[in-house]
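Notes taken during the Thursday session

The instructor put the following on the board and asked us to keep it in front of us for the whole hour. The protein is Na+/H+ antiporter. We were told not to look anything up and to reason only from what is written here. First, the residues (691 in total):
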Amino acid sequence: MDTFTLILCVLAAVVLSSFLSRFLPKISTPLVQIALGVLATYLPFFPDTELDPELFMVLFIAPLLYLEAHEIDKSALFKSLKISLSLAIGLAIATMVAVGFTVHTFWPAIPLAAAFALGAALGPTDAVAVSSLGKEAALTQRQLSVLKGESLFNDASGIVGFQFSILAAVTGVFSFGEAAGEFVVSFIGGTLFGLAVGLVVNWLFETIRSLGWETTTTRILMELFLPFLLYLAAEDIAHVSGILAVVACGLLIRFDHTGIGPNVARTNIVSSSVWAVLSFSLNGAVFILLGMLLPDAMSRSWEDPGVSNPMLISVILLVALVVIAMRFLWVAAVLRVTKDQHTGRRRRMTPERWRSAAVMTFGGPKGTITLSLMLTIPFFTAAGDLFPMRDELIFIASGVIIVTLLLANFLLPLIAPNRGTDDSHEITEITIDVLRRTVEELTQRITPENRRAVLMVIDSYTKRITRLKQRIGGVDPHGFEQLQIDALYWEKDFIKERLATLRAQPSPDGHDRDLGIEACERMLDQIMDTLRHAADHDSSGHAVSQIRGRVRALQRRTQALTRRVISKIQRTTPLLSEDEVTERVRALQVEAIEHVINRLYDEIRGTRYSTEHCSLLLLDYRRAEATLRARPNVGAGAAAFTMADDVKRESYGIEMGIIQDMFEAGDITRAQARALRRNVYVMSVDADASL
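Then, after some discussion, the predicted structure tokens were revealed:
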């Protein structure tokens, strides 16, 4: 029961970290998760954390390495393969040797083999941490490609080196010739085993799909089980490196993501979603566990009278310095000797290239794999004695992880600052890509019942894409967006005046008056919600505006409901039907559009706005007016448009999800994500106009 409770608590902390990260944009998600893990240890209902090292390797490392190899950009990987391999193999070995001799020399109580194991574990970098930390820094695609490729390959080399170092520390016997022979067999055997399994699995899934036997459930389950089964088979049956087998298979396997038809697309979408959730959960769980294990490991080492606390802190700082210095010198040397792809000549180290070396140095923090390896250190040696300095080694590795994460979190934005300003042409192209992905997602959700409504929304997105393509040429999107926002304020003022008039002048027809008030309040809620999201605010002001707006909207809806109930009880006026409200809202929209059109004609003759911007927005509002006037009055037509409104709101959620996915994948920066979210609300004016 304690194990089940622990799993639930860790997952709850992972979910909480995903929310907290949104409110702490300057702090990376791994650091937030580590802090949550530390806090969790002081809660009374959290059970003690004890993990089987072998289970930890299978449960966390195997699927994470498989997914990392499967998702990496193969073309970009091959372009930067030489640099990545140099860092993954050469730098990993150099780091293992340098850290090993440094730690053993500075603290002789740590055996040399155990110190080598610490150095080997500190060789791998964490690609997920790089992706999350890079949101605030402007890393180039080549830098990201090198870092991700390095993380993929140095995982395997670091793990193999770690395993042999631990074997020497446990048995007390180390033969270089025997170790080299076993290393070659394990390395080559694991690679060949993974490639063979990958070929078989590819053929199997192609056959299953061609026979029509594939279902979403079987496909996802087989994908999920593959890295676990592959790792266990390689280690226990073939007696080769399970890590290398997983990496090789992940690079080769494709699960036949090609095909035609909604079932294939739906299966691929579900597969990507499941893996995204699993990856975030596993990585989050590792950092949560790191935070949970830190206090216990620190207290045992800190309170041990035989261990010098200043020595612990000194070793952490020394090891971190050695790791960072080795990495910087190695990266700089690689950049110096690497030939230019176009000229074939070696380039001198300019200030920009030194900055790139610093970016790639601090952009390689330690994380998941390092902690996972350290937790696999056995408790006892072959002679039955306690493994020497096990807690201290884990403590040192954890300290170096935190140091490198902190340096990456706060130094990367200084070395490669994200200016926060995006080229208008680039952000427009990204917006078009988001809209296209939204259309693809909406296409997968078409059913016989919602077909008409979804096609209406898709048509509005198609028009938005067309207009964005037309604006790429020479129109400033920021100025146009500001005009859109101002036009919304004009609509808001018009509706507020109409609402005040209705309330101040009682009508003999109470039903008609209530209908007008309901229509005004609905339109006002929609406009205010758009303005709250579209306008520029600081974080605190934006949150306050959101709360105030929600309260006012709730008050208006409560008042409307109260009026309906009173009217029903007194039987003075009949309750308002949804078709009547929809028809009145449509009529009010037409009047508001005419008001904005007249205002735009006045602004064209002025100097406040660009004439081109006013002309473009006039076309949008004219198109909206024509669309509204062409709608059927009530009945089935109104029901279809009501459903279209629901689909439209769902499409906004899809857009937000796509933007978040692109941000988490490192495809866009935080500033771009913020601008895209703002555009979802600003450009919703165009979508409303087209419906």
